[in-house]
Amino acid sequence: MIPYGRQEITEADISEVEKVLRSDFLTQGPTVPRFEKSVASYCGASNAIAVNSATSALHIACLALDLGPGDWLWTSPNTFVASANCGRYCGASIDFVDIDPKTYNMSISALSDKLLKAEKLGKLPKILVPVHFAGQPCDMSAIHQLSKRYGFKVIEDASHAIGASYNQIKVGSCKHSDITVFSFHPVKIITTAEGGMALTNNKELADKMFRLRTHGITNEKKKMKQRPENQIWNYQQIDLGFNYRMNDIQAALGLNQIKRLDHYVESRHKIAKLYDKEFKNLSITTPWQAPFAYSSYHLYPITIKTDSNIKIQKKIYDELRNNDIAVNLHYIPVHRHPYYEKLGFKKNDFPIAEKFHLEEISIPMYAILEDEHQYHVIETLKKVITA
Ligand SMILES: *Cc1c(COP(=O)(O)O)cnc(C)c1O
């Protein structure tokens, strides 16, 4: 089976991991801060907090921004559930902003309209979580301007988008946001097996997130609430945090993977270019790219242009699977999951995301996709579409 996405593990990756296994530090040791520095400097952000998943990073990002009961978090319905769940972990209410039919990212005009209405009702969001779907950055300067006007905070869910840029500015720079979150799950651009990271230029938010990833404990004297009675054993828990730490084994893998990040993104662009070219004269909509965006192409989402209502998505999905191509669908709109329907969301609440879900297919896209396999995908799709 040709998967829709997969990691590459090199001999050098294995040897870096092995070095850690033979060292004194298996948990968080010297390699985690080295990995953090490396990602922060790549992105041009001043602080990076490595954790055990992007989900954990989203959670501590929300907590650092004081999200709690009575607050609202808004995100895109076209995302993985974690982008919304982080708000629920904090007891906040969730709402969604429908997507743009061209980029499949949160629609800026839908966002503007919804903010205008929310202001009148006194229900403005405290946090907005734009998601860079498939690796294509959202229109961040528009989002930034709206955040200033309405006073909400911005957490970029950039789980798909390490290596991408917005107007030549690297995603993760936090130029237009308070915090940016990456995922290092194996299907993402680079991997640490499981892992994630939060980046920010705000030192206070960074300190809070460092504490929250490890039980809310500090060992900085000036942060301690009372003078420790015992001068030797001097750490204090000052917030309620978690064990969300990344370990040195994961960090060593990430640190070696990030060396290949630009190369990976270039190879994903090459693959996208060939798909774009080969599907040009077919009734397939290829992923449109905004002029300000340099995508990391985590996914290559296509939709089939059809006038009829026949279930062509299912047919193509099955045909590709029958030909050893394991395509995937991104995403079941978050509000249509039973958990969110119980909270009151229903069909047609966000019709563009729902329509996209019924048409979209993510075809194989990963840095080490072999030419031969890509041509097999192209030829199979051509056959199915014209059949
Ligand atoms: C993968 C993903 C996450 C969660 O990442 P984990 O590291 O598995 O927790 C969150 N948001 C989006 C958009 C994702 O694709």
Chain-wise SSE layout:
Layout: H1 11-21, H2 31-43, E1 47-51, H3 54-64, E2 72-75, H4 82-89, E3 93-96, H5 108-121, E4 127-129, H6 140-150, E5 153-157, E6 165-166, E7 169-170, E8 179-183, E9 196-200, H7 203-212, E10 217-218, E11 236-237, H8 248-257, H9 261-278, E12 284-285, E13 293-294, E14 300-304, H10 312-322, H11 338-342, H12 351-359, E15 360-363, H13 371-386
Parallel strand pairs: 2-3, 2-4, 4-5, 5-8
Antiparallel strand pairs: 1-9, 6-7, 6-13, 8-9, 10-11, 12-14, 14-15
Helix pairs in contact: 1-8, 2-8, 3-4, 3-7, 5-6, 10-13
Pyridoxal-5'-phosphate binds at residues 53-55, 79-80, 82-83, 131, 157, 159-160, 183, 185, 196.
Spell out the key features of this protein:
Aspartate Aminotransferase, domain 1, 15 strands, alpha/beta, 387 residues, Aspartate Aminotransferase, domain 2, binds pyridoxal-5'-phosphate, globular
